[in-house]
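hey so i finally got around to running both of the ones u sent me last week. sorry it took forever, my laptop kept dying halfway thru and i had to restart like 3 times lol. anyway pasting them below in the order u listed, first the sequence line then the C-alpha cell line for each. didnt double check formatting much so if smth looks off just lmk and ill redo it

first one:
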Amino acid sequence: MRILAINGSHRGKNGYTAFLIDKMFQGAQVAGANCETINLASMKITPCAACQHCHATESLSHCIYEEKDDVLEIFNHMRESDLIIFATPVYVFSMSGKMKTFLDRLHSAGNADTFMITKQGLFFHYVDRGICGKPFVTLVCCDNLESETTKNVVGYFKTYAKFMDANNVGVLIRTSGAATGQGKDPEKEQSFPRIQEVYKAYYQAGKELALNGRISRKTQRKANQKVIHIPPMIKQLARFKPVQKIIIEKEKKMM
C-alpha cells in the first residue's frame, strides 16, 4: 500500500496539519504501508490560466506550465499511489489557497469535449482516473471550536468524490487546535485528556488505511471527537452579551 498525503498548509512540515499526518503515518508504516507527504508550501504551483491549451486536440492533457512548475511531478506521485490524503487547515471557512490552486490544475487531467456519466448518474466529462479517481481521505483541521467552520471543505470533497468516481474512505475533522495546544504545547495538552485519545485514533486510522484501505466509522468517531465540550445550554446563553463577556474573559486566561 502506497499512501500519499498532500498537505495544503502554508506552514508546510511545521504546521498542525503535518503533525496530524505524521500521527497517521506512524500507524500506517507499522502496518507495512509506504508513506509519503508532499508539502504544497515548498512546491511551485502556478494558478490555472483557463487558457484551454490542455483541452486542445494537439495538446490534450498537457498544461502550458507542466515544464515550468511542480504540478506534473505531483500528478505522477498521485498516479503511483494507492490512496491519497487531502489534508488542509481552514482559511476563511475554506481550504487553503495552496490546496485550491493545486486542485484547479486538475483541469488539465480532463477532456471537456468527451461526455460521460458518473457512477452516481451525474453528467460530467472524461477525467484521468489514474490521478483523479484514487480513493482518498479528507483531513481538515482548524483552531475554531465550531464544527460549522469545516463544513465547506468537507462538502467540497464530498462533491469531488461524486464527480471523480473516487471513494472517500475517511473524513477526519480536528477542531480547537490553538485553544488546547494540540501538537505544539504538551503542557497545555495535559489539561485536555481527550487529546491523547484523538492521537491514538489517528494512529489507528493509519493502520486501518494500510490494512483495509479505509478508516472505520468507530475510529473516525474517536478521531473527530470534541476535545472541548460546550453544553447546549451554554451555546444558547452565549447569544447574550453579559454571558459573552464572561466567556471571552475565560478564553483570554486560557491563551
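and the second one:
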Amino acid sequence: MTITARSHYQESSESAQRHWEIPHDRLEDTSPVASYPAAVLSQITGNQVTGTLLVIDDVDDIAIIDFTCSMVYRHTVRNVDGYSGSAENSWAAIDIGNVIFYDRSATMPAGTYLSQSANDNLGAANPQFGHVVPMADNATWDTDEADYPTAATALTATCGVMQSGAGTGSW
C-alpha cells in the first residue's frame, strides 16, 4: 500500500507545532522537569492549557512547552479514577482511548502528573491532558497496549498519550 500526502496538506501542516515559553510561576508545578507534563495556571481550575515540557531555563525561570494538539509522548500515568477525601479509592484499567487528566493531587507518586481522574484529591477539577493511544515499544516497534494496567488496583504505567494541547477547547 502506498501512502501519499497532498502537497497543500504538507504546506498547511508546516509550523503546526506550538512551542511557547512560559514563566515557571505560571505553571501548576513551579519546579518543572524536562519531558514531564505541564499545566498552565488559569482563572478557571480544570480549564487549562496543557502540554509537555521540552526545555527548562532555570536562569530566566522559563520553560519551553510543546502545546501541539495531537502530539504523542510517553508519559507515566496513574490508573486512579477517584478519590475519597484525600486518598485514592478507585482505580480502572488503562485502555486505549481513555481520557487522561493533569492530576495535581498530593497523593500522586513522584514524577507522575497524569491520571484517569477528572477531579483531584480535594475535589477540584483536573484539566484534560489528552488520551491514551497505542505505543510502540523500543525493541520491536510493536504496539504494547497489552502492557497497560488492566487490574483495578493502584498502578502506574508508561503510556502513549496524545495530548489535547492548544486549539482544541482545552482552554
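quick thing i noticed on the 2nd:
The first strand starts at residue 19 and ends at 23.
anyway thats it, ttyl
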